[in-house]
Design brief:
Chain A: Keywords: Cell membrane, Membrane, Transmembrane, Transmembrane helix, Transport. The complex is a heterodimer of chains A (311) and B (453). Chain A has 311 residues and is an all-alpha fold. Chain A has a domain of 189 residues: MetI-like (MetI-like fold), CATH 1.10.3720.10. Chain A has 13 helices and 2 strands; from the N terminus they run ααββααααααααααα. A two-stranded antiparallel ribbon of chain A has the order 1-2. In chain A, helix 2 crosses helix 13, helix 4 runs antiparallel to helix 10 and helix 12 runs antiparallel to helix 13. The longest helix of chain A is centred in the N-terminal third of the chain and has 32 residues. The two termini of chain A are 41 Å apart. With 453 residues, chain B is α/β, with parallel strands linked by helices. Chain B folds into 2 domains: 190 residues, D-Maltodextrin-Binding Protein, domain 2, CATH 3.40.190.10; 204 residues, Periplasmic binding protein-like II (D-Maltodextrin-Binding Protein, domain 2). Helices cover 47% and strands 13% of the residues of chain B. Chain B has a 6-stranded mixed sheet, with helices on both faces. In chain B, strand 1, helix 3 and strand 2 form a beta-alpha-beta unit. The longest helix of chain B is centred in the C-terminal third of the chain and has 23 residues. The chains are: A mainly alpha (311), B alpha/beta (453).
Chain lengths: 311, 453
């Protein structure tokens, strides 16, 4: 029996030989510079913000600076209606932006994943907005929405709408106008990521499904979507965090206006720190935003079972 | 096979996601980072009087060419001093300096206008200049009102932290060709202004009487229109504890002024900062715009000098002109400079008659050097000439805005610009807007008075 077991036992894999010439500390030495940079540029500023969130700190009023305890946080939750307004608007902005970007990005990825004449040019056109810098994107849309040089002026020339108007200055149209501008920049992000994942779907799955009589919609639902699940979860999560923190486009397009209609929480934080110099309170707002994002991100990953087994 | 591969990489994916997410979230927090290391309190040193100094221009881009000319002339006269010019956009200047005060990296010398002076002085970032000015050939040669204005803006202890280069002034620019065509009188009174705004508006033909500033910087322009119409001559009551901004006469004036929005102005004005407002006026279909002397050259380039005039603000019902103060601009030496002697040499040179004249001719502003103010170019730059006359001939009363309050920028920008947009959009009454601002101003003044003892 013992002999039989010994025979049945597979041979042990050959042991890997350690690189005998490499000094023991070499890996630490190699990651050292990256670690130092992360400590300097991420850990220190993060801890600094946590520290200032417990302080009254306004450099233009040094006589008031000092330890504030949880005072800034109490102010955030009980005395500052603007915090709640901007938080609600931020959530609205993230949901609409990420949802539409995913929808259009997926549609474009599916289209440019097909074989057709001019596919290379089509792909380049789809991805090109992602290569445009945020500043240029903002400048393009500022011009497009300008009342004298933009689309509304030419529509007015055609008798559609009034002169001197801009969709960015009307509370009823500013939100969709800003959404469209940011969609132009954000859709390619999803298209690129999803196209990359689409190209790894085995063709034989579709062939087998076709033999079984599955329609295109059924193939999309039962093969494509499950395959894209992890890519969708990760990309929507990253994009949601980026969109939540979006300051440049809205600041340039609307400055948060008109009348605070497009002020997101990060824009409010930027105004509180840069314009009002209230760095202690701005740090508390930032800490709260961080905790909210962290909580939402973990909940999203758990609920969506990111990285879990496919059925 | 594919599925099994995906299953085996689950842990790695989770780790990758966690790392990516952690980094992104961490950047959320670092966006508000501030090290508070306090470079503003650095005492600096006199230095050798030679070598390199760094100069920060507080209106980079707009004034870059003229500053480069002045620096070239300076380096020719002082070959042992090398000036490094750094142009910073006016809108970014305060945050750049504040960041440098906290984190280090301040220049030796830089633009320090009245609007920012209190904040920089409170952070102990500026070198007192009274003694240097007293021992300089500039002593007695600079406009006394401008010097006093900067002393008052510096924090209330009468110390001079910035030496004036120029004064600005509110200007009503109007299109002479459009006025002539419509047979309208010059808008020298507020009544004439409102009449012209209405009569020049034909919105169906893309013609408007006026363009209002609804975006960044709107508060100072609204205050100018309010005090100009109401004729109230002081920002504070006699006890200097309560502001006059919400005086019923100011409320009435603001209601009338804000009612111009969309009736005589483009609807897009609600978001306009000065760049957009000036560009819109220069596009050629609007009768009037309020701005300061700084945009004169832009209008000349866009329209030609013969199609418009720039006159002082209209006079009120009493026949007197009341305007709010425009910040005096100046140059300051930063306390942390290791070469203050050379920095001061540069300030003296830039404020000499020839260079001060050169700078202000380019900027279209009123020179601080009393001899430069008599130079021939001023008679050719009509808005500057009229502004200088208005400021000096006793016809105008200036309402001094409280630049000395550390909260002034907050109150006049972050706190109330969105509310002014609400007034324009009809979502807030002029009274509620001014009452809110008055409450904030009174609280800021009380805190300031308490701090100063």
């Amino acid at each position: 029996m013992a002999q039989a077991a010994a025979v049945a036992k597979p041979p042990a894999p050959p042991r890997r030989r350690r690189a005998s010439h490499a000094p023991r500390g070499l890996p630490y030495l190699l990651i050292g510079p990256a670690l130092l940079l992360m400590l300097g540029f991420i850990a220190y500023p993060v801890l600094s913000v946590f520290y200032y969130s417990l302080q009254d700190y306004n450099p233009t009023k040094p006589w008031r600076n000092g330890y504030a305890g949880l005072g800034n946080f109490v102010r955030v939750f009980t005395e500052d209606p603007q915090f709640w307004d901007t938080l609600v608007f931020s959530a609205q902005w993230v949901f609409v932006e990420v949802g539409l970007q995913l929808l259009f990005g997926l549609a474009l990825a599916l289209i440019v994943n097909q074989t057709f004449v001019g596919r290379g040019i089509g792909r380049a056109l789809v991805f090109s907005p992602w290569a445009v810098s945020g500043v240029l994107t903002s400048a393009i849309w500022v011009l497009l929405y300008n009342s004298q040089t933009g689309v509304s002026r030419y529509l007015a020339d055609l008798g559609l709408g009034e002169y001197g108007t801009s969709w960015l200055s009307d509370p009823a149209t500013v939100f969709p106008a800003a959404i469209v501008a940011d969609l132009w920049r954000g859709v390619p992000f999803f298209a690129i990521l999803l196209l990359a994942d689409l190209q790894s779907v085995p063709k034989d799955l579709y062939e087998a499904a076709e033999v079984d009589g599955a329609s295109r919609l059924q193939q999309f639902r039962h093969i494509t979507l499950p395959h894209l699940k992890d890519a969708i979860i990760l990309s929507t999560l990253l994009r949601a965090v980026w969109e939540f923190n979006n300051v440049d486009l809205l600041y340039t397009l609307t400055g948060g206006g008109p009348a605070g209609e497009t002020t997101t929480l990060p824009l409010y934080i930027a105004n509180t720190s840069v314009d009002a110099h209230d760095f202690g309170y701005a740090s508390a707002l930032t800490t709260v935003a961080f905790v909210i994002l962290l909580f939402c991100s973990i909940a999203y990953l758990r609920l969506s079972k990111f990285g879990g087994e496919k059925k | 096979m594919k599925i099994s591969n995906r299953t085996s990489t689950t842990g790695r994916r989770r780790t990758t996601a966690a790392v990516a997410l952690g980094a992104v979230l961490a950047l959320t927090v670092t966006a508000c980072g501030d090290d508070g290391s306090g470079a503003g309190g650095d005492k600096g040193a006199e230095g050798s009087g030679t070598g390199k100094i760094v100069f920060w221009d507080n209106n980079g881009g707009v004034r870059t060419d003229v500053w480069k000319e002045i620096i070239a002339a300076f380096e020719k006269e002082h070959p042992d001093i090398d000036v490094e010019y750094v142009g910073i956009a006016a809108t970014e200047y305060q945050s750049k300096v504040d960041t440098a005060i906290q984190g280090g990296g301040l220049p030796d010398v830089g633009g320090v206008g009245a609007a920012m002076l209190a904040g920089f002085a409170a952070q102990d970032a500026l070198e007192p200049l009274d003694e240097r000015l007293a021992g300089s050939p500039l002593d007695g040669r600079l406009n006394k009102d401008m010097v006093e204005s900067l002393k008052a803006a510096g924090g209330g202890d009468g110390t001079l932290y910035s030496v004036p280069t120029s004064a600005n002034n509110g200007v009503l620019y109007y299109r002479t060709d459009l006025f002539d065509k419509a047979g309208l009188a010059e808008p020298t009174t507020w009544d004439a202004f409102y009449e012209a705004a209405g009569k020049l508006t034909r919105s169906g033909r893309n013609e408007f009487g006026y363009t209002i500033r609804g975006g960044a910087g709107s508060i100072a322009q609204a205050l100018d229109a309010m005090y100009g119409q109401s004729g109230i001559t002081s920002f504070w009551d006699e006890g200097r504890e309560k502001t006059t901004v919400n005086d019923p006469r100011n409320v009435e004036a603001l209601e009338k002024y804000a009612a111009l929005y969309k009736k005589a102005t483009p609807a897009a004005d609600v978001n306009n900062d000065f760049t957009k407002m000036v560009a819109q006026w220069d596009s050629g279909t609007i009768g009037m715009v309020n701005h300061n002397l700084g945009s004169y050259q832009d209008h000349v380039k866009a329209l030609g000098a013969d199609k418009f005039r720039g006159i002082p603000q209209p006079t009120g019902a009493s026949g007197k002109r009341v305007q709010v103060s425009n910040p005096v601009d100046g140059l300051g030496v930063f306390k942390s400079s290791k070469n203050k002697e050379a920095a001061w040499t540069f300030v003296e040179f830039a404020l000499s008659r020839a260079q001060n004249s050169r700078f202000n001719e380019s900027a279209g502003q009123v020179p601080s050097h009393t001899d430069a103010a008599k130079d021939e170019w001023i008679s050719r730059a009509e808005p500057t000439k009229l502004a200088a006359q208005a400021l000096n001939d006793g016809s105008t009363t200036i309402v001094q805005l409280p630049y000395y309050l550390p909260d002034w920028n907050t109150i006049s920008k972050a706190d109330n610009e969105p509310n002014f947009q609400k007034v324009l959009l009809g979502k807030m009454s002029a009274k509620a807007f001014l009452d809110t601002m008055a409450k904030q101003l009174d609280a800021a003044q009380a805190e300031w008075n308490e701090h100063k003892g």
